[in-house]
Design goal:
159 residues, two-stranded antiparallel ribbon, UDP-sugar diphosphatase activity, 6 helices, Nucleoside Triphosphate Pyrophosphohydrolase, 9% strand, alpha+beta
Length: 159
């Protein structure tokens, strides 16, 4: 969706005409990176019998490469996203990870269309990152950084 919005912004005539042939022959094609966004680790709740925390364990391992036990997840809140389109309900969790918990590279499952690069943001740069409008990100990213700054960062040892 982000990519298609960028195509429409750069080439409004293509989507107005709904001409598939002209779309595939853009003189100035939109690079794929235009559809890449910063997002939180996430997954679909589609495993009956598993708690949200257990599903989150699998997603963190698959997407980020960390093995986190379900009881390490702290539920922050649930909220609606995509309210004009899907109205999906999301639940935000917090879990701390260490290098010792890393068991792989993460990256998701390419066969499912996932293209994931794990990005670490230094704590001192986190709010600059959150408010940088040139970096495409979800509202969940911004909210989670604000929550962290208000609830976890003040308790961290000062350098």
């Amino acid at each position: 969706a982000v990519y298609m919005c960028e195509v429409e912004r750069r080439h409004p005539q293509v989507l107005q005409n709904q001409d598939k042939e002209s779309f595939s022959r853009l003189e100035d094609p939109v690079p794929a990176v235009a559809g890449v966004t910063y997002e939180l680790c996430a997954g679909i709740v589609d495993k009956p019998g598993l708690s949200l925390e257990e599903i989150a364990c699998g997603e963190v391992l698959e997407e980020c490469g960390y093995r986190v036990l379900f009881f390490f997840f702290r539920r922050i809140t649930s909220y609606r996203s995509g309210v004009g389109v899907t109205g999906s309900r999301q639940t935000l969790f917090y879990a701390e990870v260490t290098d010792q918990m890393r068991t792989g590279e993460g990256g998701g499952q390419p066969e499912e269309g996932e293209l994931i690069e794990v990005v670490e943001i230094p704590l001192e740069d986190s709010m600059k990152f959150a408010y940088d409008e040139t970096l495409p990100k979800t509202m969940g990213v911004i909210f989670s950084f604000m929550w962290f700054q208000n609830n976890i960062a003040p308790k961290l040892p000062k350098k």
